[in-house]
Amino acid sequence: MTPTPLRVDPAASALRSRRRTHLSAMLAGVLLVTSGWGLAHAADSAAIERGRTVFHQAGGCGCHTDFEHGGAPLAGGRPIKSPFGTFYGTNITPDPETGIGKWSEKNFVRAMTQGEAPNGSSYFPVFPYASFTRMNDWDLADLWAYLRAQQPARKANRPHQIRPPFGWRFLLPVWKWLYFEPGAFRPDRARSAQWNRGAYLVNGAGHCAECHTPRGWLGGLRIDMALAGSDGGAGGELAPNITPDRTTGIGKWRVQDVVWLLQTGLEPDGDSVQGLMAEAIEHGYENLAAEDLESIAVYLGTVPPIRHEVKENDREPADSHSPRSSD
Amino acid sequence: MDGSSRSALTGCVLAGLLLVASASWAQDDEAVIGYRQKVMESQGANMGAIGDILKFKLPYQKDIAGHAQAISINARMIASAFEKPVSAGKTDAKPGIWKKWDEYKADADKLAEASDELAKIAAAGDMNAITAQVKKVGGACQGCHESFRKPKEQSYQRKQ
Fold first, then answer.
1. Residue of B46, B49, B153 with shortest CB distance to A312
2. What DSSP designation does A63 have?
3. Is the bond preceding residue A165 a cis peptide, omega within 30 degrees?
4. Domain spanning A193-300: CATH 1.10.760
5. Chain A residue at shortest CA distance from B88
6. Which of A129, A305, B82, B119 could form a disulfide with A244 if both were Cys (CB 3.0 to 4.6 A apart)?
């Protein structure tokens, strides 16, 4: 067991957030006096820029873009295959009718941290709110500013095609009760700032566990197998073991190897990553500052190593006829 | 020897010949697969070498151009290495290669072009430009693997 991280005192966190608000109000006041109304706009664009970074931390939210069919960015419709059926990414552009144009920031934060729609219904955990709930208030606010600034695209959401009983939305609160633990990331004061930054990015916006941790039969992440690889990653892909196990994981990789992979999509042996990971790198991770990528690498090097070889689980790609060897 | 035993003997000989022929075919297929894998592994080795120079800041920056040229030369051999349609056996090649041969060949050409460009850029020595072009070469690998190679976790290596 790793030492239990200390929970940040919510009162202290609120206090800090109030202080920040006061400070920015004071600064804004000073600046407004000196340069007039243009400032509000400048503050907005600063938030949007920071939000772009948060968007990159999240891997570019590609599940909401139907790249394959040339869909408008973030307008949804992308199929995401799962053992429970096919989900379709939703429209998260600011279009008021088909997107999230009518949402308030509060609606957005509630969706990200509680997995609840504005009407109070629960989201399927294919939307990785179990990870996003670890994000800080200010990162969520910046991400909201960024999403608000994107091009609205009118495209109605496509209903998910999920086998019963998994498709019964009213059962989701039970699922959440079993598997969902809301709450922002709790820094571990015994660890370095770099480690905490990595832990925050991996477990929050980066949502690495959503593909790299195997799921139980109800679709809950198996915490005992955290990051040990899964044959049922999003889109039916195989997600490798990224724990520091030396034979089945990335225990032999150095910090620079992880950074390089997240910057270029290239593995230490010169091979390229595939599928969703290639996308998340191209639209997200590769844009992050080297220090953040290093933090991720340092943190990943400290998670419990788990010996687990990801196998294809008797599935063959549809167009493959290669016979299995007789071992 | 009567007629029927003569024809039986001829049948046996023919069957034997066929057996030998098919065995040597099978052997050829295995050799083809082995050869292809070596061509591909050397691509990976050169990409990995370039990666090592850049990520560990090794003092071999002047050799990036050479590695890029090696990838380009190899890329031009990919098409001929895969001309023979062998998709059974211990291989990760998908049969789609031969169903969409033109697309496959175009992908190999893309890799050759991207690595030629890398060789040029590497000679100029601008690290950011080099890294950006390495990404493009990696993108050429990735694009083709996405369409024509089985995922790593399904690799023949895991089945042995």
1. B153
2. G
3. yes
4. yes
5. A322
6. A305
Q: How far apart are the C-alpha atoms of A292 and A177, rounded to whole Å?
A: 33
Instruction: Look at A317 and B134 and tell me if their CB atoms are within 8 Å.
Output: no
pLDDT digits (tens, 9 = 90+) for A255-287: 999 999 999 999 999 999 999 999 999 999 999
Q: Tell me, yes or no, if B39 comes closer than 8 A to chain A by beta carbon.
A: no
| Minimal Cβ distance to A270: which of B45, B135, B150 | B45
Segment A159-215, tens digit of pLDDT: 999 988 888 888 899 999 999 999 999 999 999 999 999 999 999 999 999 999 999
Tell me if the domain spanning B32-159 has CATH number 1.20.120.10: yes
CA distance to partner chain A, nearest, from residue B56 (Å)? 7
Q: Express each pLDDT in A280-314 by its tens digit.
A: 999 999 999 999 999 999 999 999 999 999 876 53
Side chain identity, residue A192 = S
A39 burial (CB, 10 Å; 0-12 / 13-18 / 19+) is: middle
- Burial group, residue A70, by CB count within 10 angstroms (0-12, 13-18, 19+): exposed
A325 contacts B51? CB cut-off 8 A: no
pLDDT of residue B20: 54
Beta strands A85-88 and A161-162 are antiparallel
What are phi and psi for residue A135, nearest 5 degrees?
-75, 150
Distance between CA A54 and CA A289 in Å, rounded?
11
Q: What is the pTM of this model?
A: 0.82
Residue spans of the domains in chain A: they are 41-179, 193-300
The CB-side HSE value for B50 (13 A sphere, CA atoms) comes to 31
Domain residue ranges of chain B, discontinuous segments joined by +: 32-159
**A9-37 residue pLDDT tens:** 444 445 545 555 555 555 555 555 555 55
Which of A253, A274, A311 to mutate: most B Cβ within 10 Å? Answer: A274
Question: Two tokens at A221?
Answer: 């992440």
> Mean pLDDT throughout B103-117?
97
State the ipTM, two decimals. Answer: 0.81
CB atoms within 10 A of CB A99: 25
Across the interface, of B87, B142, B153, the residue whose CB is closest to A322 is: B87
**What is the distance, to the nearest Å, from the Cα of residue B91 to the centroid of all Cα atoms in its chain?**
10
Length of chain A counted residue by residue: 327
CA distance A167 to A160: 8
DSSP annotation of A161 reads E
- Indicate whether A327 pLDDT > 60: no
| Helices of type H across chain B | 3-55, 64-81, 96-99, 101-124, 127-148
Question: What tokens were used for B108?
Answer: 């190999």
